Amino acid sequence: MRVPVIAGNWKMYKTSGEAAAFVRAFLPLVAGVREVEIVLAPPFPSIVAVAELVRGSNVTVSSQNVHFADEGAYTGEVSPRMLADAGATHCIIGHSERRQYYAETDDAVNRKIKAALAAGLTPIFCLGETLSQREAGSTFDVVEAQLLRGLNDIPAKEAPKVVVAYEPVWAIGTGRTATPEQAQDVHAFLRGRLKGMWDDAAESVRILYGGSVKPDNIATLMAKQDIDGALVGGASLAADSFAKIVKFK
Ligand code: 13P
Q1: CATH code at position 233
Q2: Torsion of the alpha carbons at 90, 93, 97 and 103, rounded to the nearest 10
Q3: Best residue among 97, 98, 99, 213 to mutate for probing ligand 1, ranked by most atoms within 8 Å of CB
Q4: Which domain holds residue 50?
Q5: pLDDT digits over 86-130, tens only?
Q6: Alpha-carbon Rg of the chain, whole angstroms?
Q7: Which of 51, 95, 124, 249 has the smallest CB count inside 10 Å?
Q8: Which of 39, 172, 177, 218 to mutate for ligand 1's pocket (most ligand atoms within 8 Å of CB)?
Protein backbone atom coordinates (compact mmCIF):
# COMPACT_ATOMS: atom_id res chain seq x y z
CA MET A 1 0.00 0.00 0.00
CA ARG A 2 1.47 3.31 -1.07
CA VAL A 3 0.51 6.26 1.15
CA PRO A 4 -0.70 9.04 -1.16
CA VAL A 5 1.18 12.33 -1.24
CA ILE A 6 -0.67 15.57 -1.91
CA ALA A 7 1.82 18.40 -2.29
CA GLY A 8 1.17 22.09 -2.91
CA ASN A 9 3.81 23.89 -4.93
CA TRP A 10 3.32 27.58 -4.26
CA LYS A 11 5.94 28.60 -6.84
CA MET A 12 6.83 32.30 -6.41
CA TYR A 13 3.69 33.24 -4.50
CA LYS A 14 3.06 34.39 -0.90
CA THR A 15 5.07 36.47 1.55
CA SER A 16 5.80 34.97 4.98
CA GLY A 17 2.73 36.71 6.37
CA GLU A 18 0.53 35.35 3.60
CA ALA A 19 2.02 31.90 4.08
CA ALA A 20 1.29 32.00 7.81
CA ALA A 21 -2.30 33.11 7.19
CA PHE A 22 -2.72 30.19 4.78
CA VAL A 23 -1.40 27.67 7.31
CA ARG A 24 -3.64 28.98 10.09
CA ALA A 25 -6.67 28.59 7.84
CA PHE A 26 -5.56 25.27 6.35
CA LEU A 27 -4.58 23.19 9.40
CA PRO A 28 -8.09 22.96 10.90
CA LEU A 29 -9.52 22.01 7.50
CA VAL A 30 -7.25 18.96 7.19
CA ALA A 31 -6.83 18.11 10.88
CA GLY A 32 -8.74 14.84 10.60
CA VAL A 33 -6.95 13.58 7.50
CA ARG A 34 -4.92 10.42 8.02
CA GLU A 35 -3.09 8.22 5.54
CA VAL A 36 -2.26 11.10 3.22
CA GLU A 37 1.11 12.80 3.29
CA ILE A 38 0.29 16.50 3.07
CA VAL A 39 3.14 18.71 1.88
CA LEU A 40 3.38 22.49 1.46
CA ALA A 41 6.19 23.93 -0.66
CA PRO A 42 6.50 27.65 0.03
CA PRO A 43 9.24 29.90 -1.35
CA PHE A 44 12.52 29.73 0.63
CA PRO A 45 11.92 32.79 2.86
CA SER A 46 8.74 31.24 4.33
CA ILE A 47 10.04 27.73 5.01
CA VAL A 48 11.01 28.39 8.63
CA ALA A 49 7.73 30.14 9.44
CA VAL A 50 5.61 27.44 7.80
CA ALA A 51 7.63 24.63 9.41
CA GLU A 52 7.14 26.16 12.85
CA LEU A 53 3.41 26.58 12.32
CA VAL A 54 2.85 22.99 11.12
CA ARG A 55 5.06 21.36 13.75
CA GLY A 56 3.19 18.49 15.44
CA SER A 57 0.48 18.47 12.74
CA ASN A 58 -0.13 16.13 9.81
CA VAL A 59 1.40 18.65 7.39
CA THR A 60 5.05 18.73 6.30
CA VAL A 61 7.16 21.23 4.41
CA SER A 62 9.11 21.10 1.16
CA SER A 63 11.37 23.46 -0.72
CA GLN A 64 10.95 24.04 -4.45
CA ASN A 65 14.62 23.58 -5.29
CA VAL A 66 17.91 22.63 -3.65
CA HIS A 67 21.61 22.74 -4.44
CA PHE A 68 23.68 19.54 -4.57
CA ALA A 69 26.56 20.72 -2.38
CA ASP A 70 26.52 20.77 1.41
CA GLU A 71 27.92 24.30 1.43
CA GLY A 72 30.24 26.41 -0.70
CA ALA A 73 30.67 29.50 -2.86
CA TYR A 74 27.35 29.14 -4.73
CA THR A 75 25.72 32.55 -4.52
CA GLY A 76 21.96 32.42 -4.31
CA GLU A 77 21.74 28.70 -3.59
CA VAL A 78 20.48 26.70 -0.60
CA SER A 79 21.87 23.33 0.49
CA PRO A 80 19.99 20.21 1.58
CA ARG A 81 21.47 20.49 5.07
CA MET A 82 20.16 24.06 5.38
CA LEU A 83 16.71 22.97 4.29
CA ALA A 84 16.58 20.13 6.80
CA ASP A 85 17.76 22.56 9.48
CA ALA A 86 14.99 25.00 8.48
CA GLY A 87 12.39 22.30 9.03
CA ALA A 88 11.81 20.98 5.51
CA THR A 89 11.39 17.24 4.99
CA HIS A 90 10.91 17.25 1.20
CA CYS A 91 12.32 19.14 -1.76
CA ILE A 92 10.94 19.50 -5.26
CA ILE A 93 13.67 18.79 -7.81
CA GLY A 94 13.71 19.22 -11.57
CA HIS A 95 10.44 21.09 -11.97
CA SER A 96 9.84 21.92 -15.62
CA GLU A 97 9.97 25.64 -14.81
CA ARG A 98 13.50 25.17 -13.49
CA ARG A 99 14.46 23.06 -16.48
CA GLN A 100 12.98 25.66 -18.86
CA TYR A 101 13.99 28.98 -17.25
CA TYR A 102 17.17 28.01 -15.37
CA ALA A 103 18.59 25.44 -17.78
CA GLU A 104 18.50 22.67 -15.19
CA THR A 105 19.81 19.48 -16.79
CA ASP A 106 19.09 15.83 -16.04
CA ASP A 107 22.62 15.57 -14.64
CA ALA A 108 22.03 18.44 -12.20
CA VAL A 109 18.71 16.87 -11.23
CA ASN A 110 20.48 13.57 -10.53
CA ARG A 111 23.07 15.27 -8.32
CA LYS A 112 20.35 17.13 -6.44
CA ILE A 113 18.32 13.96 -5.82
CA LYS A 114 21.40 12.19 -4.44
CA ALA A 115 22.24 15.15 -2.21
CA ALA A 116 18.67 15.39 -0.93
CA LEU A 117 18.59 11.69 -0.07
CA ALA A 118 21.95 11.92 1.67
CA ALA A 119 20.58 14.75 3.84
CA GLY A 120 17.48 12.74 4.73
CA LEU A 121 15.13 14.81 2.57
CA THR A 122 12.48 13.22 0.37
CA PRO A 123 13.00 14.34 -3.23
CA ILE A 124 9.88 15.08 -5.28
CA PHE A 125 11.47 14.44 -8.65
CA CYS A 126 9.57 16.11 -11.51
CA LEU A 127 9.54 15.10 -15.14
CA GLY A 128 7.23 15.44 -18.12
CA GLU A 129 6.99 16.14 -21.82
CA THR A 130 6.19 19.39 -23.62
CA LEU A 131 3.23 19.76 -25.96
CA SER A 132 5.39 19.48 -29.06
CA GLN A 133 7.03 16.32 -27.70
CA ARG A 134 3.59 14.79 -27.02
CA GLU A 135 2.35 15.76 -30.48
CA ALA A 136 5.48 14.25 -32.02
CA GLY A 137 4.67 10.95 -30.27
CA SER A 138 7.80 11.04 -28.12
CA THR A 139 6.22 11.25 -24.64
CA PHE A 140 7.47 7.85 -23.48
CA ASP A 141 10.98 8.39 -24.84
CA VAL A 142 11.20 11.78 -23.14
CA VAL A 143 9.98 10.69 -19.72
CA GLU A 144 12.06 7.50 -19.85
CA ALA A 145 15.23 9.48 -20.51
CA GLN A 146 14.42 11.96 -17.73
CA LEU A 147 13.62 9.14 -15.30
CA LEU A 148 16.71 7.05 -15.99
CA ARG A 149 19.09 10.02 -16.01
CA GLY A 150 17.54 11.59 -12.94
CA LEU A 151 17.80 8.37 -10.93
CA ASN A 152 21.12 7.23 -12.36
CA ASP A 153 23.23 5.34 -9.78
CA ILE A 154 20.61 5.53 -7.06
CA PRO A 155 20.22 2.10 -5.43
CA ALA A 156 16.93 0.24 -4.91
CA LYS A 157 17.13 0.70 -1.14
CA GLU A 158 16.37 4.40 -1.67
CA ALA A 159 13.16 3.64 -3.61
CA PRO A 160 10.73 4.12 -0.70
CA LYS A 161 12.19 7.58 -0.13
CA VAL A 162 11.84 8.74 -3.74
CA VAL A 163 8.70 10.48 -4.96
CA VAL A 164 8.31 10.97 -8.71
CA ALA A 165 5.98 13.64 -10.11
CA TYR A 166 4.78 13.32 -13.68
CA GLU A 167 3.90 16.82 -14.83
CA PRO A 168 3.15 17.15 -18.54
CA VAL A 169 4.33 20.67 -19.34
CA TRP A 170 1.25 21.34 -21.50
CA ALA A 171 -1.00 20.75 -18.48
CA ILE A 172 0.79 23.11 -16.08
CA GLY A 173 -1.14 26.29 -15.39
CA THR A 174 -3.20 25.83 -18.55
CA GLY A 175 -6.39 24.39 -17.10
CA ARG A 176 -5.84 21.53 -19.52
CA THR A 177 -5.47 18.50 -17.24
CA ALA A 178 -4.25 15.22 -18.66
CA THR A 179 -7.14 12.79 -18.67
CA PRO A 180 -6.90 10.15 -15.94
CA GLU A 181 -6.21 7.62 -18.74
CA GLN A 182 -3.41 9.70 -20.26
CA ALA A 183 -1.82 10.14 -16.83
CA GLN A 184 -2.25 6.47 -15.88
CA ASP A 185 -0.61 5.37 -19.14
CA VAL A 186 2.50 7.38 -18.35
CA HIS A 187 2.50 6.42 -14.66
CA ALA A 188 2.26 2.72 -15.53
CA PHE A 189 5.08 3.15 -18.02
CA LEU A 190 7.23 4.90 -15.40
CA ARG A 191 6.46 2.16 -12.86
CA GLY A 192 7.57 -0.41 -15.42
CA ARG A 193 10.85 1.39 -15.99
CA LEU A 194 11.36 1.71 -12.23
CA LYS A 195 10.84 -2.07 -11.98
CA GLY A 196 13.49 -2.58 -14.62
CA MET A 197 15.86 -0.59 -12.44
CA TRP A 198 14.82 -1.49 -8.89
CA ASP A 199 12.74 -4.69 -9.21
CA ASP A 200 10.06 -5.05 -6.53
CA ALA A 201 11.17 -1.91 -4.72
CA ALA A 202 9.52 0.04 -7.56
CA GLU A 203 6.15 -0.83 -6.02
CA SER A 204 6.91 1.45 -3.08
CA VAL A 205 7.64 4.55 -5.20
CA ARG A 206 4.88 7.15 -5.08
CA ILE A 207 4.23 8.61 -8.53
CA LEU A 208 2.30 11.89 -8.37
CA TYR A 209 0.46 13.60 -11.18
CA GLY A 210 0.74 17.38 -11.63
CA GLY A 211 -0.84 19.81 -14.08
CA SER A 212 -4.11 21.68 -13.47
CA VAL A 213 -5.18 19.45 -10.59
CA LYS A 214 -8.33 20.92 -9.03
CA PRO A 215 -10.89 19.87 -6.40
CA ASP A 216 -13.19 18.62 -9.17
CA ASN A 217 -10.72 16.38 -11.00
CA ILE A 218 -8.59 14.94 -8.18
CA ALA A 219 -10.87 11.98 -7.38
CA THR A 220 -10.89 10.54 -10.91
CA LEU A 221 -7.11 10.91 -11.13
CA MET A 222 -6.60 9.24 -7.74
CA ALA A 223 -8.83 6.33 -8.76
CA LYS A 224 -6.14 5.17 -11.18
CA GLN A 225 -3.89 2.36 -10.05
CA ASP A 226 -0.54 4.05 -10.51
CA ILE A 227 -1.50 7.60 -9.53
CA ASP A 228 -0.34 7.95 -5.94
CA GLY A 229 -0.96 11.61 -5.34
CA ALA A 230 -0.74 15.06 -6.83
CA LEU A 231 1.61 18.00 -7.13
CA VAL A 232 -0.69 21.01 -7.18
CA GLY A 233 0.18 24.53 -8.27
CA GLY A 234 -2.56 27.16 -8.60
CA ALA A 235 -5.20 25.26 -6.65
CA SER A 236 -2.87 24.93 -3.65
CA LEU A 237 -2.75 28.69 -3.08
CA ALA A 238 -6.14 28.90 -1.36
CA ALA A 239 -6.65 26.92 1.86
CA ASP A 240 -10.16 25.76 1.02
CA SER A 241 -9.40 24.48 -2.48
CA PHE A 242 -6.20 22.73 -1.39
CA ALA A 243 -8.01 21.16 1.57
CA LYS A 244 -10.64 19.80 -0.82
CA ILE A 245 -7.90 18.22 -2.91
CA VAL A 246 -6.27 16.69 0.18
CA LYS A 247 -9.67 15.24 1.14
CA PHE A 248 -10.21 13.67 -2.26
CA LYS A 249 -11.67 10.42 -0.89
P1 13P B 1 -0.84 23.96 -11.82
O2 13P B 1 -1.55 23.07 -10.81
O3 13P B 1 -1.03 25.42 -11.54
O4 13P B 1 -1.14 23.55 -13.21
O5 13P B 1 0.74 23.71 -11.60
C6 13P B 1 1.23 22.41 -11.59
C7 13P B 1 2.64 22.44 -11.14
O8 13P B 1 3.52 22.89 -11.85
C9 13P B 1 2.94 21.92 -9.80
O10 13P B 1 4.31 21.77 -9.61
Answers
A1: 3.20.20.70
A2: 150
A3: 213
A4: 5-246
A5: 999 999 999 999 999 999 999 999 999 999 999 999 999 999 999
A6: 17
A7: 249
A8: 172
